[in-house]
């Protein structure tokens, strides 16, 4: 694991935040834009500037022009669209207090990190420092909406809670620690392999999350299969080393079967033919495979190494009480099976009812903590430009056969503006070859 970790640290590549859905209409439009209108499909960012109450943002145009010029000099910036441009409407709010500076960025198709975005962020911070007190300048947009997965204190708390629960159930902190050690080891190896392969394959930034969650869950579960059998045999007086072998020989088959079932199910994510889901399923399946291997190899070695320390202390009175409690519960559920079945089914239906109101969406900055920079920009844009500004739509138009491409685009723009749910259509323009047109539509509702 240490060797793999060292290799991963030395040779890992960036994670990707891009995903595609083959044959989807939106994917076809994006691919067409990338070929015929690359600037329309570029990674974007937006700087929103909000003047203090009682002031107009264009009062500070000299400072804005300076910031725009500085942004244009950055290597990562392909194009800057200032709020006073005549090409795009709606970059200044109706109240005049807020303005948006749009940026087209180029990071070679990879997901930009916070450090890579730092030069752009610094220009925005310098602009805010030059403007009067009370002015807000915040960076948002697609590039800043990316929040790479990372470990937080929540994962640590989860492991601590698992240790406490296992200690209570097993009655030994030594026994409770083994499933956690093996689970973390399996996940660590899988993560090292994944990070190492990022230099070769395009791996989505959400992939590690599923692998870590499943790896820890099944790693603890599979270890408990074998560990419980081992402790039962030790309680019967079996030698620790022989018991470890027998535990793997008996409970190990259940671990292999359970792991194989989960492995196949995760590979089934590829049936959807969505590349990032396929990759996510493959690496999650690999993590499960490592959990099985660790449970069948590393865990028995640990059990043998711990020897007599794993032997549970005899507690005949408690065991007798536990058996009586379990027998009573089994008797209650089997005495009236129909009532038990109906009760369980009704209970499950009641628990599932809230799912009828479930709304599915992709992650947005609106779901981040209120003090996060991307969330601040998201809220400011929603407040001053409407919720739809955070989820604009792109319409592509084939205009190669038109004798009046500008007139055609303006006509389509006017038709779209009459549709329900459309807030505004700020942009309708052809590409340099005048064979494809792009129309940007801002809906009245946001992406949430």
Automatic annotation (TrEMBL):
InterPro entries membership: MMPL_dom, Mycobact_MmpL, SSD
Query: Would the keyword Membrane be found if you checked this record's keyword annotation?
Result: yes
Q: What is the species of this protein?
A: Tessaracoccus flavescens
- Extract one GO cellular component term from the record: plasma membrane
* Family matches, as Pfam families: MMPL
The residues covered by the SSD domain are 180-305
Task: Specify whether Membrane is a keyword of the entry.
Answer: yes
**Per UniProt, what is the membrane topology?**
Multi-pass membrane protein
Subcellular locations according to the entry: Cell membrane
The name this protein carries in UniProt is MMPL family transporter
Q: Indicate the principal place this protein occupies in or around the cell.
A: membrane
Which keywords accompany this UniProt record?
Answer: Cell membrane, Membrane, Transmembrane, Transmembrane helix
Tell me where the signal peptide lies.
none
Task: Give TM regions.
Answer: 151-173, 180-201, 207-227, 248-270, 276-305, 326-353
């Amino acid at each position: 694991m240490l060797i793999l970790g060292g290799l991963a640290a030395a040779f890992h590549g960036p994670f990707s935040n891009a995903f595609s859905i083959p044959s989807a209409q939106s994917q076809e439009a994006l691919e067409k834009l990338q070929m015929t209108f690359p600037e329309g499909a570029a990674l974007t960012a937006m700087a929103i500037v909000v003047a203090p109450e009682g002031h107009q943002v264009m009062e500070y145009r000299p400072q804005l022009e300076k910031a725009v010029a500085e942004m244009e000099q950055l290597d990562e910036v392909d194009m800057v669209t200032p709020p006073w441009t005549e090409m795009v409407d709606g970059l200044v709010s109706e109240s005049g207090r807020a303005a948006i500076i749009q940026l087209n960025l180029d990071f070679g198709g990879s997901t930009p990190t916070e450090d890579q975005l730092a030069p752009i962020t610094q220009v925005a911070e310098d602009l805010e420092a030059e403007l009067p007190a009370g002015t807000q300048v915040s960076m948002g947009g697609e590039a800043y909406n990316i929040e790479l997965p990372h470990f937080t204190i929540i994962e640590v708390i989860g492991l601590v809670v698992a240790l406490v629960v296992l200690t209570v159930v097993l009655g030994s902190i030594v026994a409770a620690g083994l499933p956690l050690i093996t689970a973390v080891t399996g996940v660590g190896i899988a993560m090292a392999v994944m990070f190492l392969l990022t230099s070769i394959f395009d791996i989505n930034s959400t992939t590690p999350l599923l692998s870590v969650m499943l790896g820890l869950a099944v790693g603890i579960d599979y270890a408990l299969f074998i560990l419980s059998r081992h402790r039962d045999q030790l309680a019967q007086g079996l030698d620790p080393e022989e018991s470890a072998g027998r535990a793997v020989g008996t409970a190990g088959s259940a671990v292999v079967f359970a792991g194989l079932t989960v492995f196949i199910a995760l590979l089934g994510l590829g049936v959807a033919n969505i590349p990032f889901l396929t990759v996510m399923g493959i690496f999650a399946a690999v993590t499960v495979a490592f959990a099985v291997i660790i449970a069948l190899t590393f865990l028995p070695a640990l059990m043998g190494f711990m020897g007599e320390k794993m032997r549970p202390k005899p507690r005949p009175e408690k065991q007798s009480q536990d058996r009586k409690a379990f027998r009573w519960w089994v008797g209650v559920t089997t005495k009236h099976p129909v009532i038990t079945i109906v009760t369980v089914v009704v209970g499950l239906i009641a628990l599932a009812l809230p799912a009828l109101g479930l709304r599915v969406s992709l992650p947005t900055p609106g779901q981040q903590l209120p003090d996060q920079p991307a969330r601040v920009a998201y809220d400011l844009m929603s407040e001053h430009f409407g919720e739809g500004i955070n989820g604009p739509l792109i319409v592509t138009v084939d205009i190669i056969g038109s004798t009046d491409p500008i007139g055609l685009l303006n006509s389509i723009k006017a038709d779209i503006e009459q549709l329900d749910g459309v807030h505004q259509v700020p942009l309708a323009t052809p590409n340099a070859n005048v064979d494809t047109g792009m129309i940007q539509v801002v809906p009245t509702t946001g992406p949430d």
